[in-house]
User: Fold this.
Amino acid sequence: MQQQELIPHLFRTEYSKICAVLSRLFGIEHLEAAEDIASETFVLALETWSYKGIPDNPVAWLYVVAKNKAKNYIQRNALFATKIANAIKATTTEVSFIDLSEENIADSQLQMLFALCHPSIPAEAQIGLSLRILCGFGIDEIATAFLTNKETINKRLFRAKEKLRAEQIAIQLPAPNEIDKRVDTVLTTLYLLFNEGYYSESNDAIIREELCTEAMRLVYLLMNNEQTALPKVYALYALMCFHTSRFPARKNGNGEMVLYEQQDETLWDYELITKGAFYLNKASQGNSISKYHLEAGIAYWHTIKADTHEKWENILQLYNRLLQIAYSPIAALNRTFALAKANGKAAAIAEAEKLRLTDNHYYFTLLGELYTNIDNTKAKQYLEQAVSLAKTGTDKKVLAKKIEEL
Amino acid sequence: MEEYALIMRHEDGGKIASPEQMQQWMKQTMDWIGGIAAQNKFVNGTGLLFDNAKVVTTQGGKPVVTNGPYGDIKETIGGLIVVKADSEEEAVAFATGCPVLQGEGNSMEVRKIAKERAH
Assistant:
């Protein structure tokens, strides 16, 4: 790999590792110091490697530099003397107490994940912090992902870090009796992070896919620890596998969104679908059903393209259950679409009219579709209402096409 | 928004219907509940099994346990769901959609949930 590709690549993978290990050693109140050390390490790499060339083992080089910088920081910082005094005494010439082994990195990142996804931190800030500290995203990349500017993200992260400090959140796994509840908060954040990538209106396709990949990597961290490998964690991973299996088919040659119905299923990634099925199977241990189980079930049925009654009946029943434990307008609309497929349009129209989600353009899109070929005048009215509420160019275009086809 | 219990009173389906018919009723019930949940009006619910049901009464101050069914009434409580509704009328409208009403003599009872006043 050439240097201009290698450094961003290493930054993405190693920055977060160094950050996690050092913050865990220093404590959350020194999170910024850990970030600075990781950043400075990369600045030095950039300077040194450009005239000396890339070392044989770049990662090891980074770790040595990070360790030395960490040691200097500890020695400079009087507050620290008491905190990890014993560790320093024992290793005056060595820096072996800074453990950058694979195992400690994985443990530190997992513990950091729980610290950042603490219930006292607002969800949006949790996602931003996770992207910055656990995924090594740049501020501008986070801003692109959230369709906002750097200042907003900087402010959000700053406030979140203040909060982490004020609440004195420990970088550690929650107590065994709290794990189940705390995992829920972590899963919510990773679910949102994934959705941010999957449904984002950002034009940057690479960043969107990376958001999904990173969300999956973090779920994987949970799956790989005995204490956090809960059925709902497997279920969320399965859901993500099924969704990402459609990535290659979701965009056409012009970069435009291809709707599910029109996708070429030969482009779906069947390896990921098989993987999803494997983890969904693992998720079926235990006796509680999370919303991730139900959503993964729905996503599973969507990996079968054929329009059978069995498929839609199953999807309908899964939505019926999902709505009982986790209502959302989009689930209500999708449930009504499945109802039309399973029980017929007449039944679905009656149910759709009760939803009254009149500020949602998908609601009018659904009504437009249900009335198509039943009452095309009504269908057109609803689709036009949908156009007037639609926010993105892609949505408006899809709707215009539907009206044209009436 | 108040909460209402919608109580289903019906015969033991297992005694009068084939497994296929039971499955069909189950689907209709799930679709009915799903329709309420899609309006974000579902709170919770539970089915009650007829098998091994017991009735406890007292005779001369001593408890007497008998097996169900329940004396002279044919239909009994088969399950209930709790819904949110803006009015009694809305709760009644939800109840009207319940598939148990397809059975002659079955009924739905609509009862407002007693709540402590907000603190």
